[in-house]
Amino acid sequence: MMPLQFSQPGQQLTLDYMESFIKADGRQYAASCGDQVELRSHFQPIYSLAHQRVVGYEALIRPSLLDGGPISPLMLFAEASTLEQSVFIDRMCRTLHVSNFMQQADDTTWLFLNLNPLTTMYGKQFGPFFKDLLQRYNIPPHRIVIEILEAQIDDEELLAESICYYRDMGCLIAIDDFGVGHSNFNRIWRIAPQIVKLDKTLIDQAASNRSVRRVLPELVSLIHQAGALALIEGIETEQQAMIALQSDIDFVQGFFFSEPHKDLEARSSASTIGKLFTTLREDHAREELESKKKLTPYTNCFFDAVMKTLDGEDPEQALQLFLELPDVSRCYFLNASGVQVGQNFSAGSCSSVDNPRFAPLNDTHKAIWTRRHYFQSAIAEPGLIQISKPYLSLTGGNLCVTLSIAINTKQGLHVLCGDVSWADN
């Protein structure tokens, strides 16, 4: 056990009491926590990719022994054996962070503060504190982002009451560590945060797993549609930074941009982020070129089949050469309402029939594909071949792209579609 000093039982944990443990140390403040333990603030910059600059700092506590030996923050909080001691440490950290932040901060940047879950629910039992803290150091509530680790909180009513307290005060609310444990979108609906912090495990997985990398932009899009901004932490490499940029992440945080430091001076980001945007444009252009090159034989053959069909040739015969191309799965017609007319024209070498696990989906006659983008884009631009983005085929259970074109037939306007399997590499 570390020789920590805690409040006496029943002590009101007021701001004045917290400040009695803080001492000036040059430009910074430190806090004594016993005869051998000292607390210091470090701040990690949070960057806006669009603005190419720092927009906030996350405050991190750095405990250490007086002989210089580090102590993990988890170990520090683990030493608290009572609720009162947990609140004591939490308030001590926040007092230290705010005092150090306001020594150096400009007039606009956010300060991200983590709240101990127990303090979130029960802190009011130990007297007023947070509003006094902000008033003492003259920091407006709208510059504070309260990070909630609500996954550790079971009492829904107390959680809601605590969040309302900070929200009504004017602070921003952020959900921390989203994407791990039991986190899900129910948290976002319930809490309605302004910021969702995605856990670093997501960027780690996206860097090594293309499927995760493909889904991450959709996750960010859902967060945006829920009315929140997305922040991803743990960016350590250029590859991870590029993935964040490609995913339309709003804010980034991590060693690649800047490590935590006691000073607020952050590494210049405009050049670094500017290079990322340049690389993104170059990568996008290259991928477009490679995709076009790969699909050119398919679009040419598909167009030939369309012309033969318009000339009166039997559609199945007209599509034969296209269906014989490698990776072509099937072709089919949709009417002007998006309803499939007839069965699929299946390629013998790549038919969904070959995979019995998807047998219940093989019969697509009268299936309604109105919601598919390849149908909507074809209807919007008749006579032009459309190429979809890769998506999961409901019929075959595999990734594919769909070529589509709206043409006038004897039966009226129809959309001819051709599915091409798309390797996930």
Short summary:
With 425 residues, the protein is of the alpha/beta class. The chain has helices at 15-19, 73-78, 83-104, 117-122, 130-136, 156-169, 185-191, 200-208, 210-225, 238-246, 270-310, 315-318, 320-323, 373-380, and strands at residues 22-25, 28-32, 37-48, 53-65, 110-114, 144-148, 172-178, 195-198, 229-233, 251-253, 328-335, 340-346, 386-387, 391-392, 399-409, 412-421. The protein has 14 helices and 16 strands.
Structure description:
The structure is a single chain. The protein has 425 residues and is of the alpha/beta class. The protein has 2 domains: 15-268, EAL domain (TIM Barrel), CATH 3.20.20.450; 296-421, PAS domain (Beta-Lactamase, 2-Layer Sandwich). The protein has helices at residues 15-19, 73-78, 83-104, 117-122, 130-136, 156-169, 185-191, 200-208, 210-225, 238-246, 270-310, 315-318, 320-323, 373-380, and strands at residues 22-25, 28-32, 37-48, 53-65, 110-114, 144-148, 172-178, 195-198, 229-233, 251-253, 328-335, 340-346, 386-387, 391-392, 399-409, 412-421. The strands form 2 sheets. Strands 3-4-5-6-7-8-9-10 form an 8-stranded mixed barrel, surrounded by 5 helices. Strands 11, 12, 13, 14, 15 and 16 form a 6-stranded antiparallel sheet that branches. It is elongated, with a radius of gyration of 29 Å. The mean pLDDT is 87.
